[in-house]
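call fold target=Non-homologous end joining protein Ku
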Amino acid sequence: MAPRANWKGYLKVAELTCPVALYTAASTAERLALHTLNRETGHRVLRDYVDRESGDTVPKDDQVKGYEVAADDYVVLEPDEVAAAVPEADKTLAVEAFIRCRDVDDVYFDRPYYLAPSGRVAEEAFTLIREGMRAAKVAALARTVLFRRMRTILIRPHDTGLVGTTLRFDYEVRAAAEVFDDIGDLRIEGEMLDLAKHIIGTKKGQFDPKAYDDRYEAALAELVRAKIEGRPIEKPAARPAAKVVDLMEALRQSAGMSPPAAPKAKATRAGRGTKAKAAAEKPPATARRRKAS
């Protein structure tokens, strides 16, 4: 059964228009859903909105949105006023520019969606747009009203379709300098850098999403099964505490290298080693006398 489209409209590139459908590419529907219960009765707990001052339950029809301009002073926004402020949806995904994919920093990526032609008639125009972008090695920046908000979407070729990723607005992304400015300007070179490059080289691989399981979800599912079957709950073994080691030693161990041999002990007095060697090679006095006789 084909998935249900979240949005249907038109992908527009200059004068070329193609009917398309937008599908959610990421979903949390498969996660375990836990409900809040009354421990004594086992019944589900319902959530009610109550007046903070009176404690009375407020019916849904009496709930309105408000913006706080000062302490406990709000500007009330009626539902029809909020609806009127929403940009008009023309169902057109209008491409404003074609850019290189790497021109958009990943921190702006929000949610991914699949874009597919809406019907057989649209396949030729859709394929033309997709293959044109693939040949030019570009992505498209488009804008449309999506779920009652004007959104910017980055569109890229993906297999036989397109993937569109909604982008966060500039004001939603914190400046990296707020976090990174306190990092010292250190230079790493020599053996330490060579070891780091060696370790990275030995760990090269490819991304396979199936290889990365959700350990929390798996543990939660096992806990539910154990409770249903009446089995005892086994606590996972505690992980050993990480040891703080010398950075260079940690690099050598990671690279599978044995630690450097300890330097040999040296005589504390100058010339002691030479005299000891000469004494060892010189025969005892009694031996010399016997040899002379």
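return ok
The radius of gyration is 35 Å. Helices lie at 79-85, 123-136, 177-180, 191-202, 215-229, 247-254, 272-281, 285-292.
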